[in-house]
Amino acid sequence: MQQLMSYMRAAMERYDMIEQGDCVAVGVSGGKDSVAMLCALAEMRRFYPKAFEIKAISVDPCFFGKESDFSAIEQLCARLDVEYIIKRTNLYHIIFETRKESNPCSLCARMRRGLLHDAAKAAGCNKIALGHHMDDAAQTVLMNLFRGGRFACFSPKSYLSRKDLYMIRPMIYVPERYIENLALRESLPVLVSACPADGNTARQDTAALLQTLGKDYESLPDKILHALQTDGISGW
After folding, report:
1. What are 121-168's pLDDT values in tens digits?
2. Which domains does the chain have, with CATH numbers?
């Protein structure tokens, strides 16, 4: 956890992610990344030089028409003294049953972000923290390059003028393996995804490609991150 917080603090300070008095909505899907980030930010409230508060928010797509069981996350938030908000939705019905999307991930992500934005505003938050890590950034670069013909990535910090919200990604310096190890060591309450598209997405294909390339090119995600910062791509 100390190593994770060290990585996060470096990113938070480089990109001025946290200001005095911020109220940060932590987007919690239930996966290892968002749960680890929630725990780290809850701990960092005690010593970070700029005082901030956090609230955890989960957007439930209600896969197969059933409400997801977030009770383990509720118990974690109670231990961390973090307010927890669950936003139930009909995303599964819209995307998989009504529209029958053949490539549902992009639309689902956009709709979930919109619902998360609205929930954060309703909760009085001025920032939203997302759990993207270093490997996510590298995968996004490769996806944009190979599929869209452009060198681009999400930004560490961005402003949504229509919502008057900042999006921050405190874990962009964190290698995914650190998060995996932390989740195992700390027995974090990581939820298993019920998404019918899980395990068969373009991002997972790209992650496998990045792992293969990494056998010949050492520390490839770190090098891609360095390229983003050196060239000032997308706010890096």
Report:
1. 999 999 999 999 999 999 999 999 998 899 999 999 999 999 999 999
2. 2-235 (3.40.50.620)
